[in-house]
Write a structure and sequence with these properties.
By secondary structure, this protein is an alpha/beta fold. Helices cover 30% and strands 20% of the residues. It is built from six helices and ten strands, in the order αβββαβαββαβββαβα. The strands form two sheets. It has an eight-stranded mixed β-sheet with strand order 1-2-4-3-5-10-6-9, sandwiched between helices. It has a two-stranded antiparallel sheet with strand order 7-8. Strand 1 and strand 2 form a beta hairpin. Helix 4 packs across helix 6. The longest helix is centred in the C-terminal third of the chain and has 24 residues. The protein binds zinc ion.
């Protein structure tokens, strides 16, 4: 079986300008770190002086996964990105995938396997930008899965920091289904949580999360919402996952 091909319910260039406009309104710095097919690749950063956790969030790396960028835009417009943290957002990494509704970019490359020796302009540019950024206290990679029956997540937590996985899943489970399969994508899962073991750095093709684990953050979550569910629900789940992860992180750092 292959995923259904559904063009995104938005125009990428228009969505990017909505991000830029809203980001400026909410005190973000807007950077264009590349351009693909006339659509800018953007990063939005917002720093508040004083000790704050650094939170990185990316979305839109797979063109058949529209809920994550739409959720980020909603959070931005709602004023969610406040003074609690220093924010680093890359909201739409694969602009050419969305009009076609394909996981891959226009050249057929899966951008989320391109972080070791990048072949795509998108990820080469993203890596150049990431290399100029500090380390992050939390990384969130927002995704969707067309084969899932509910939401699930991957946790990369090599230093055994306080986990946010149960917190995120519990918050979502109050209102939305969790994928309860014991094996997801060939990996053992427990109540919607996958903790890949072994050193993922030995993998030949690097997803973004593995790159982040190797170079940028000791705590990373990949959130996966089920594409077969209504878009509005998936957007709500993505928002809830981000909100819960951030408030959990802030609380766990306050306790130290
Ligand atoms: Zn994905």
């Amino acid at each position: 079986m292959s995923p259904p091909v559904v063009p995104a319910p938005f125009n990428p260039a228009r969505l990017v300008s909505e991000f830029e406009e809203s980001a400026r309104l909410h005190g973000f710095r807007v950077e264009r770190f590349g351009e693909i097919d006339g659509c800018p690749l953007i990063a939005l950063t917002k720093r508040t002086p004083g000790p704050r956790p650094r939170v990185y969030i990316s979305a839109g790396i797979h063109g058949d996964e529209p809920a994550p960028p739409l959720a980020l835009l909603r959070l931005l417009q709602r004023g969610f990105f406040d003074r609690r943290a220093i924010w680093f957002l890359c909201p739409l990494l694969n602009p050419t995938g969305f009009p076609r509704g394909t996981r891959e970019n226009v050249d057929g490359l899966d951008l989320n396997r391109d972080y070791r020796q990048p072949k795509s302009g998108e990820i080469a540019a993203h890596l150049r930008w990431l290399e100029t950024q500090p380390s992050f206290d939390l990384g969130l990679c927002l995704h969707e899965d067309w084969e899932a029956s509910g939401t699930y997540l991957y946790e990369l937590n090599p230093q055994q920091r306080p986990s946010l996985a149960e917190l995120i899943i519990t918050a979502i489970a109050k209102r939305f289904p969790i994928d309860q399969a014991e094996s997801i994508d060939g990996r053992p899962a427990h109540g919607g949580i996958i903790r890949p073991d072994g050193d993922p750095a030995t993998r030949e093709l690097w997803p973004e999360a593995i790159y982040l684990r190797a170079h940028h953050t000791t705590l990373n979550y990949t959130i996966e919402t089920p594409s077969c569910h209504p878009l509005e629900d998936r957007i709500a789940v993505q928002c809830l996952a981000v909100e819960t992860a951030v408030s959990g992180l802030v609380k766990s750092l306050d306790r130290r």
